[in-house]
Amino acid sequence: MNRASLIFAALVAIAVPLSLLAGRIWVDPDVTPNAVPILMELRMPRAVLAVVIGAGLGAAGAAMQGYLRNPLADPGLFGIAPGAALGAVIALYIGVGSAILLPLFALVGAGGAMALLALIAGRTANPAHGIALFTLAGMMIASLAGALTSLAISLAPNAFAMSSIVTWLMGALTDRSWADVMLAAPLTLAGLAALWLAGRDLDAMTLGEPAARSLGVSPGRLMALLVVGTGLTVGSGVAVAGIIGFVGLIVPHLVRPLTDKRPSSLIVPSALAGALLVLVADVVVRILPLVTELRLGIALSLIGAPFFLMLLLRMRRAA
Amino acid sequence: MLETRAIAIADRLDSVTTALHRGEITAICGPNGAGKSTLLSALAGLLPADKGEVLLEGTVLSALPPRDRAKAIGYLPQSGEVAWDVSVANLVALGRLPHGDQGKFAVANAMAATAMSDFATRPVSTLSGGEKARALLARVLAGEPRWILADEPLAALDLSHQLGLLKVLRAQADSGVGVVLVVHDLALAMNHANRVLVLDSGRLKADSAPEEALSLDIIHEVWGVKARWLGEPGQRALVTQD
Questions:
Q1: Helix (H, G, I), strand (E, B) or coil at A290
Q2: CB within 8 A of B25, min separation 6: which ones?
Q3: What are the residue boundaries of the structural domains of chain B, listed by start?
Q4: Which of A50, A62, A97, B203 has the fewest CB within 10 Å, making it most exposed?
Q5: Is any Cβ of chain A less than 8 angstroms from the Cβ of B206?
Q6: Does residue A211 surpass a pLDDT of 80?
Q7: pLDDT digit string (tens) for A250-289?
Q8: Which residue ranges traverse the bilayer (chain A) (predicted)?
């Protein structure tokens, strides 16, 4: 475990208990009435889910940046999040948006996007074209899923369906239960394991694809690990919380200077830092004194977009 | 021995047959687009041949598990890409990936052989072009391959760095490693290679000792340039004539 992992693990360990106390009502376990049900049934699953989803997004972002050798890459590029969102939107559209069916539809959407990616990119004759084809395929899947999502919104049978779709898309952890944790946690863990296994191959990719292949990296195996890894982490995250953007982009950036900059050294600390970021952001949206709770997805994009612009400005100055 | 048997790749290589030996520096020469990098990639097992086959010590290269191939053949691409600003020590250690170990001894040896030991903790972005070229060669050496295949490793280097890198490669060849280089500078090939392959439009035009393979007739025929060699063997210079 490297230094950055230790720092973020410690911060997560501190932030989780604190986050349980914070909210519209500050819980004092000795005084607050119904403190135990509030903590155990409302805030605890929410905190665990924030950690799970943030960890998945952070690790997926780190792996994507390593794979594409580009600090501006984001797990969203693969079209898995839009695919999952489309699945959920279809569930809402046809009116089966229950707590169990909606995530399942989203997982089917994520799986569909993954299968389509593998089908298109897995058939490259010339391995040198693999990454470009893979990325383009992901972007096309993302825009197709996005268009179909918009179509579902515009054709929504009634105002209620439309509003529930739009609200869901904004991403939130409000009122999530242990059932959501049970669904997302094992899938995310499996995805994290796949991304972790890709670490050494991603290190080799630092030298470019031909050199990586000369070092024994199998492009097909690497692609499969990344499709499965990002598919499970991002897909299960979207399934239980909607679209939560920018975590996969920002977190690896913040963490990279604290590591030796090898992609494999970035995956675990990015998972921990992603967990911390989503957890803290969720606390912030809970305690902001607004009439309705600010949606987590919006909050993170509000932080993320200016950060991205700052990054571009800094890169321009460096160039 | 690293052999090709009548390999053909798209319209870039046409029926190339050759057998390269360990302990020698082999230079692959030819005009732009002649198929030099294609041949090198095929020898490295990175580009499948449409026809024919590549054999490493008698085994069909494409049948070898990628990691075994990677342990035997070190490949240095022309791009010199290092995507992340890792330290020199971590860059060189990437050469150990096929072995799945840290290989501290091999990494230290590789850095010593390329005079990079003092740079171990330096980020790659702080290196000069010549230092980076040495660090990238050290990455290949760290894998302790039996073959080193390098695509124009000397192209962007000044004279002293060219000679420095050639000295490292010569020491590798003397220790029994097969060194195969794509080289543009015919005088470098003439003076430093044991053997020269000349490619022209995907076909092998010459495959012999440098004095023979880079004869004035062949240079005229392949490059379309009238030239003449000056100096003594081992210290040749090429001058062109109008």
A1: coil
A2: B169, B170, B173, B179, B180, B181, B192, B193, B194, B195
A3: 2-80+146-241
A4: B203
A5: no
A6: yes
A7: 899 889 999 999 999 999 999 999 999 999 999 988 888 8
A8: 46-64, 76-94, 100-119, 131-149, 155-174, 181-199, 222-255, 267-288, 294-313
Give residue A148's pLDDT: 94
Contacts for B124 with CB less than 8 Å, ≥ 6 apart: B82, B85, B86, B87, B88, B91, B132, B135
| Model pLDDT for residues B84-113, shown as the tens digit of each residue | 999 999 999 999 999 999 889 999 999 999
Among residues B81, B185, B181, the alpha carbon closest in space to that of B139 is found at B81
B79 contact A CB<8A: yes
For the record, the structure tokens of B82 come out as 């290092």
**Measuring CA to CA, which residue among B148, B113, B114 is closest to residue B22?**
B148
What tokens appear for B96 in the block? 């150990």
Cβ-based contacts of B69 with chain A (< 8 Å): 216
Q: Which residues contact A289 (CB under 8 A, 6 or more apart)?
A: none
Interface of B with A in 36-75 (CB under 8 A): 41, 44-46, 66-67, 69-71, 73-75
pLDDT at A258: 92
CATH 3.40.50.40 fits A3-318, yes or no: no
Tell me which chain B residues have a C-beta less than 8 angstroms from the C-beta of A68. Answer: none
Give A52-63 as a DSSP string.
HHHHHHHHHHHH
Q: Which amino acid is at A304?
A: G
Residue A145: per-residue pLDDT: 92
In tens, the pLDDT along B146-184 reads 999 999 999 878 888 899 999 999 999 999 999 999 999
Return the CATH architecture of domain B2-80+146-241: 3-Layer(aba) Sandwich (3.40)
Lookup: tokens for A250: 């920002």
Task: Copy the structure tokens of residue B197.
Answer: 């392959």
Q: Where are the domains of chain A?
A: 3-318
| Distance between CA atoms of residues B225 and B220, nearest Å | 5
From residue B156, give the alpha-carbon distance in Å to each of B192, B196, B198: 18, 21, 21
The edge-to-edge listing of strands for the beta sheet with B73-76 is B73-76, B147-151, B178-182, B25-29, B195-200, B203-208
How large is the ipTM?
Answer: 0.92
Instruction: Determine whether A222 is exposed, middle or buried from the number of CB atoms within 10 Å of its CB (0-12, 13-18, 19+).
Output: buried
What are the chain A neighbours of B136 within 8 Å (beta carbons)? 207
Q: What is the pLDDT of residue A299?
A: 87
Q: Which two tokens stand for residue B66?
A: 């990628």
For all residues of chain B together, what is the average pLDDT?
A: 94
The beta-carbon neighbor of A263 closest among B44, B79, B84 is B84
What is the DSSP code (8-state) at residue A135?
H
| Tens-digit pLDDT profile for residues B14-25 | 999 999 999 999
User: pLDDT band at A128, cuts 50/70/90?
Assistant: low
